[in-house]
Amino acid sequence: MNRGHKETISTRFVSTAFIVLAIAIFKPFGLEVWQWQAYVHLLAMFMLGLISCFLTEVILKYAVRMPRSYDRGVNYIISRNLRFQFINTPLVSLLICLYRHFVLRPSLLVEVNRLSWSNYLETLLIIAFLSFAIGLYWRFKFRSSYLAAELEETRQLNEQLKKMQASDQEPHRKADDSADSSSLITLEGTTNEHVTLDIADLLYIEAVGNYVKVVSKSSNNEVHASILRATMKQMEDVLQSYPMIVRCHRAFLVNLSQVEQISSNSRTMQLVMRHNNDIIPVSRSNVSKLKEMIEQR
Prior knowledge:
About 55% of the residues lie in helices and about 20% in strands. By secondary structure, it is of the alpha+beta class. Helix 1 packs antiparallel against helix 4, helix 2 packs antiparallel against helix 3 (about 75-110) and helix 3 runs antiparallel to helix 4.
Protein backbone atom coordinates (compact mmCIF):
# COMPACT_ATOMS: atom_id res chain seq x y z
CA MET A 1 0.00 0.00 0.00
CA ASN A 2 1.56 3.31 -1.09
CA ARG A 3 1.65 6.60 0.80
CA GLY A 4 -1.35 8.00 -1.09
CA HIS A 5 -3.65 5.11 -0.18
CA LYS A 6 -2.56 5.16 3.46
CA GLU A 7 -3.19 8.90 3.71
CA THR A 8 -6.59 8.55 2.03
CA ILE A 9 -7.69 5.81 4.44
CA SER A 10 -6.40 7.76 7.43
CA THR A 11 -8.19 10.94 6.29
CA ARG A 12 -11.53 9.20 5.75
CA PHE A 13 -11.24 7.28 9.03
CA VAL A 14 -10.55 10.43 11.07
CA SER A 15 -13.29 12.42 9.30
CA THR A 16 -15.90 9.71 9.89
CA ALA A 17 -14.83 9.33 13.52
CA PHE A 18 -15.17 13.10 14.04
CA ILE A 19 -18.73 13.11 12.66
CA VAL A 20 -19.77 10.10 14.75
CA LEU A 21 -18.23 11.68 17.84
CA ALA A 22 -20.25 14.85 17.26
CA ILE A 23 -23.41 12.75 16.85
CA ALA A 24 -22.56 10.95 20.10
CA ILE A 25 -22.26 14.28 21.93
CA PHE A 26 -25.44 15.96 20.63
CA LYS A 27 -27.51 12.73 20.26
CA PRO A 28 -29.86 13.61 17.40
CA PHE A 29 -32.19 11.08 15.68
CA GLY A 30 -33.72 10.00 19.03
CA LEU A 31 -30.46 8.52 20.32
CA GLU A 32 -31.04 10.09 23.73
CA VAL A 33 -33.64 7.41 24.56
CA TRP A 34 -31.05 4.62 24.19
CA GLN A 35 -28.63 3.56 26.89
CA TRP A 36 -25.60 1.40 26.11
CA GLN A 37 -27.28 0.35 22.85
CA ALA A 38 -26.64 3.84 21.52
CA TYR A 39 -22.95 2.96 21.13
CA VAL A 40 -23.89 0.01 18.93
CA HIS A 41 -25.90 2.33 16.69
CA LEU A 42 -23.03 4.83 16.62
CA LEU A 43 -20.67 2.05 15.57
CA ALA A 44 -23.12 1.09 12.80
CA MET A 45 -23.23 4.73 11.62
CA PHE A 46 -19.43 4.79 11.65
CA MET A 47 -19.38 1.76 9.34
CA LEU A 48 -21.98 3.40 7.08
CA GLY A 49 -19.77 6.47 6.91
CA LEU A 50 -16.76 4.41 5.83
CA ILE A 51 -18.86 2.60 3.22
CA SER A 52 -20.06 5.96 1.89
CA CYS A 53 -16.45 7.20 1.70
CA PHE A 54 -15.42 4.12 -0.27
CA LEU A 55 -18.31 4.54 -2.72
CA THR A 56 -17.50 8.24 -3.16
CA GLU A 57 -13.84 7.44 -3.88
CA VAL A 58 -14.97 5.01 -6.60
CA ILE A 59 -17.31 7.64 -8.10
CA LEU A 60 -14.57 10.27 -8.11
CA LYS A 61 -12.01 7.96 -9.71
CA TYR A 62 -14.13 6.32 -12.40
CA ALA A 63 -17.15 8.58 -12.99
CA VAL A 64 -15.77 12.07 -12.35
CA ARG A 65 -12.30 11.02 -13.62
CA MET A 66 -10.44 12.56 -10.69
CA PRO A 67 -8.01 9.98 -9.29
CA ARG A 68 -6.05 10.87 -6.19
CA SER A 69 -2.80 12.26 -7.57
CA TYR A 70 -0.15 14.08 -5.55
CA ASP A 71 1.74 15.09 -8.70
CA ARG A 72 -0.92 17.62 -9.71
CA GLY A 73 -0.34 19.94 -6.78
CA VAL A 74 -2.19 21.17 -3.73
CA ASN A 75 -4.98 22.94 -5.65
CA TYR A 76 -5.95 19.69 -7.38
CA ILE A 77 -6.10 17.84 -4.05
CA ILE A 78 -8.20 20.60 -2.44
CA SER A 79 -10.53 20.70 -5.47
CA ARG A 80 -10.88 16.93 -5.34
CA ASN A 81 -11.69 17.00 -1.63
CA LEU A 82 -14.41 19.62 -2.23
CA ARG A 83 -15.99 17.37 -4.86
CA PHE A 84 -15.65 14.48 -2.43
CA GLN A 85 -17.69 16.40 0.14
CA PHE A 86 -20.38 17.39 -2.40
CA ILE A 87 -20.87 13.72 -3.34
CA ASN A 88 -20.29 12.07 0.03
CA THR A 89 -22.47 14.36 2.17
CA PRO A 90 -25.81 13.57 0.40
CA LEU A 91 -24.82 9.91 0.11
CA VAL A 92 -23.99 9.36 3.79
CA SER A 93 -27.10 11.36 4.76
CA LEU A 94 -29.21 8.97 2.70
CA LEU A 95 -27.60 5.92 4.31
CA ILE A 96 -28.18 7.31 7.81
CA CYS A 97 -31.80 8.14 6.94
CA LEU A 98 -32.34 4.57 5.77
CA TYR A 99 -30.75 3.31 8.99
CA ARG A 100 -33.04 5.57 11.04
CA HIS A 101 -36.10 4.25 9.20
CA PHE A 102 -35.33 0.53 9.17
CA VAL A 103 -33.38 0.12 12.44
CA LEU A 104 -34.01 2.97 14.89
CA ARG A 105 -37.74 3.54 14.21
CA PRO A 106 -39.01 -0.06 14.53
CA SER A 107 -36.98 -0.71 17.68
CA LEU A 108 -38.67 1.92 19.83
CA LEU A 109 -41.44 2.94 17.42
CA VAL A 110 -39.94 6.44 17.24
CA GLU A 111 -41.92 8.06 14.43
CA VAL A 112 -39.44 10.91 14.17
CA ASN A 113 -37.10 8.52 12.37
CA ARG A 114 -39.60 7.68 9.60
CA LEU A 115 -38.11 8.07 6.13
CA SER A 116 -39.26 11.40 4.71
CA TRP A 117 -37.95 14.45 2.92
CA SER A 118 -37.95 16.48 6.14
CA ASN A 119 -35.88 13.83 7.93
CA TYR A 120 -33.49 13.63 4.99
CA LEU A 121 -33.02 17.42 4.94
CA GLU A 122 -32.49 17.40 8.71
CA THR A 123 -29.83 14.71 8.39
CA LEU A 124 -28.27 16.46 5.40
CA LEU A 125 -27.94 19.74 7.32
CA ILE A 126 -26.32 18.02 10.29
CA ILE A 127 -23.85 16.04 8.16
CA ALA A 128 -23.13 19.06 5.92
CA PHE A 129 -22.26 21.23 8.92
CA LEU A 130 -19.97 18.58 10.40
CA SER A 131 -18.38 17.90 6.98
CA PHE A 132 -17.75 21.63 6.55
CA ALA A 133 -16.06 21.80 9.96
CA ILE A 134 -13.78 18.83 9.32
CA GLY A 135 -13.20 20.05 5.76
CA LEU A 136 -11.73 23.31 7.03
CA TYR A 137 -9.26 21.34 9.13
CA TRP A 138 -8.15 19.13 6.23
CA ARG A 139 -7.94 22.11 3.88
CA PHE A 140 -5.51 23.87 6.20
CA LYS A 141 -3.56 20.68 6.89
CA PHE A 142 -3.22 19.70 3.23
CA ARG A 143 -2.27 23.19 2.09
CA SER A 144 0.40 23.53 4.77
CA SER A 145 1.94 20.10 4.16
CA TYR A 146 1.88 20.31 0.36
CA LEU A 147 3.27 23.83 0.26
CA ALA A 148 6.10 22.70 2.54
CA ALA A 149 6.75 19.75 0.21
CA GLU A 150 6.76 22.04 -2.84
CA LEU A 151 9.24 24.40 -1.19
CA GLU A 152 11.55 21.49 -0.44
CA GLU A 153 11.24 20.19 -3.99
CA THR A 154 12.02 23.66 -5.39
CA ARG A 155 15.08 23.92 -3.16
CA GLN A 156 16.37 20.57 -4.41
CA LEU A 157 15.69 21.55 -8.03
CA ASN A 158 17.71 24.74 -7.59
CA GLU A 159 20.61 22.78 -6.12
CA GLN A 160 20.53 20.33 -9.04
CA LEU A 161 20.29 23.23 -11.48
CA LYS A 162 23.46 24.80 -10.04
CA LYS A 163 25.32 21.49 -10.37
CA MET A 164 24.12 21.10 -13.95
CA GLN A 165 25.22 24.64 -14.81
CA ALA A 166 28.65 24.07 -13.24
CA SER A 167 29.21 20.89 -15.25
CA ASP A 168 28.01 22.58 -18.43
CA GLN A 169 30.46 25.48 -18.04
CA GLU A 170 33.54 23.24 -18.20
CA PRO A 171 33.39 22.63 -21.98
CA HIS A 172 32.93 26.36 -22.56
CA ARG A 173 36.01 27.20 -20.47
CA LYS A 174 38.10 24.76 -22.50
CA ALA A 175 36.72 26.21 -25.71
CA ASP A 176 37.60 29.73 -24.57
CA ASP A 177 41.14 28.65 -23.63
CA SER A 178 41.70 27.18 -27.08
CA ALA A 179 40.09 30.16 -28.85
CA ASP A 180 37.57 27.81 -30.42
CA SER A 181 34.65 29.56 -32.11
CA SER A 182 32.47 26.46 -32.51
CA SER A 183 30.08 27.79 -29.87
CA LEU A 184 29.02 30.63 -32.17
CA ILE A 185 25.67 30.15 -33.83
CA THR A 186 23.69 32.17 -36.37
CA LEU A 187 19.91 32.43 -36.06
CA GLU A 188 18.20 33.45 -39.28
CA GLY A 189 14.72 34.69 -40.07
CA THR A 190 12.67 34.19 -43.22
CA THR A 191 13.94 37.53 -44.52
CA ASN A 192 17.53 38.81 -44.59
CA GLU A 193 17.92 39.53 -40.87
CA HIS A 194 20.03 37.27 -38.70
CA VAL A 195 21.68 37.17 -35.28
CA THR A 196 25.11 35.68 -34.54
CA LEU A 197 25.95 34.99 -30.93
CA ASP A 198 27.73 32.64 -28.58
CA ILE A 199 25.27 29.97 -27.52
CA ALA A 200 26.33 30.47 -23.89
CA ASP A 201 25.18 34.12 -24.09
CA LEU A 202 21.65 33.28 -25.18
CA LEU A 203 19.12 33.90 -22.41
CA TYR A 204 15.82 32.98 -24.02
CA ILE A 205 13.74 33.22 -27.17
CA GLU A 206 10.16 34.44 -27.03
CA ALA A 207 7.44 34.13 -29.66
CA VAL A 208 5.87 37.52 -30.48
CA GLY A 209 3.19 37.11 -33.12
CA ASN A 210 4.87 36.23 -36.43
CA TYR A 211 8.26 37.11 -34.99
CA VAL A 212 10.63 35.82 -32.32
CA LYS A 213 12.54 37.92 -29.83
CA VAL A 214 16.07 36.68 -29.19
CA VAL A 215 17.32 37.92 -25.81
CA SER A 216 21.04 37.58 -25.11
CA LYS A 217 23.87 39.22 -23.20
CA SER A 218 26.95 40.89 -24.56
CA SER A 219 30.55 40.54 -23.38
CA ASN A 220 30.03 43.30 -20.81
CA ASN A 221 26.88 41.56 -19.53
CA GLU A 222 24.47 44.04 -21.07
CA VAL A 223 21.21 42.47 -22.18
CA HIS A 224 19.79 43.22 -25.60
CA ALA A 225 17.02 41.81 -27.76
CA SER A 226 16.84 41.13 -31.51
CA ILE A 227 13.72 40.55 -33.57
CA LEU A 228 13.59 37.94 -36.31
CA ARG A 229 10.72 36.97 -38.56
CA ALA A 230 10.60 33.27 -37.74
CA THR A 231 8.63 30.66 -35.85
CA MET A 232 9.44 28.95 -32.58
CA LYS A 233 9.55 25.63 -34.44
CA GLN A 234 12.33 26.96 -36.67
CA MET A 235 14.31 28.16 -33.66
CA GLU A 236 13.76 24.85 -31.87
CA ASP A 237 15.02 22.88 -34.88
CA VAL A 238 18.18 25.01 -35.11
CA LEU A 239 18.91 24.68 -31.38
CA GLN A 240 17.99 21.02 -30.89
CA SER A 241 21.67 19.96 -30.66
CA TYR A 242 22.13 22.13 -27.54
CA PRO A 243 20.68 20.19 -24.57
CA MET A 244 20.65 23.25 -22.28
CA ILE A 245 18.19 25.03 -24.61
CA VAL A 246 14.75 23.68 -23.74
CA ARG A 247 11.13 24.46 -24.58
CA CYS A 248 9.48 25.41 -21.30
CA HIS A 249 6.37 27.03 -22.78
CA ARG A 250 4.71 27.26 -26.17
CA ALA A 251 6.04 30.84 -26.39
CA PHE A 252 9.49 30.38 -24.80
CA LEU A 253 12.77 28.60 -25.40
CA VAL A 254 15.12 29.10 -22.48
CA ASN A 255 18.82 28.53 -21.84
CA LEU A 256 19.04 26.67 -18.52
CA SER A 257 22.64 27.84 -18.15
CA GLN A 258 21.32 31.38 -17.72
CA VAL A 259 18.60 30.59 -15.18
CA GLU A 260 19.31 32.26 -11.83
CA GLN A 261 16.74 30.26 -9.90
CA ILE A 262 13.53 28.27 -10.15
CA SER A 263 10.49 29.49 -8.26
CA SER A 264 7.28 27.56 -7.90
CA ASN A 265 4.02 27.49 -6.00
CA SER A 266 0.86 25.44 -6.08
CA ARG A 267 -0.22 27.00 -9.37
CA THR A 268 2.83 27.40 -11.56
CA MET A 269 6.59 27.18 -12.01
CA GLN A 270 8.72 30.10 -13.17
CA LEU A 271 12.34 30.60 -14.21
CA VAL A 272 14.14 33.75 -13.07
CA MET A 273 16.84 34.72 -15.59
CA ARG A 274 20.27 36.13 -14.86
CA HIS A 275 21.38 39.64 -15.82
CA ASN A 276 17.85 41.06 -16.30
CA ASN A 277 15.70 39.09 -13.78
CA ASP A 278 13.07 38.39 -16.43
CA ILE A 279 10.54 35.77 -15.32
CA ILE A 280 9.85 32.98 -17.79
CA PRO A 281 6.73 30.84 -17.22
CA VAL A 282 6.78 27.06 -17.40
CA SER A 283 3.57 25.58 -18.77
CA ARG A 284 1.92 22.73 -16.87
CA SER A 285 2.60 20.33 -19.74
CA ASN A 286 6.34 21.05 -19.53
CA VAL A 287 6.83 21.02 -15.75
CA SER A 288 7.41 17.25 -15.48
CA LYS A 289 9.74 17.21 -18.49
CA LEU A 290 11.81 20.09 -17.10
CA LYS A 291 12.06 18.48 -13.64
CA GLU A 292 13.09 15.17 -15.17
CA MET A 293 15.76 16.82 -17.30
CA ILE A 294 17.29 18.69 -14.36
CA GLU A 295 17.21 15.63 -12.09
CA GLN A 296 18.83 13.33 -14.64
CA ARG A 297 21.75 15.55 -15.59
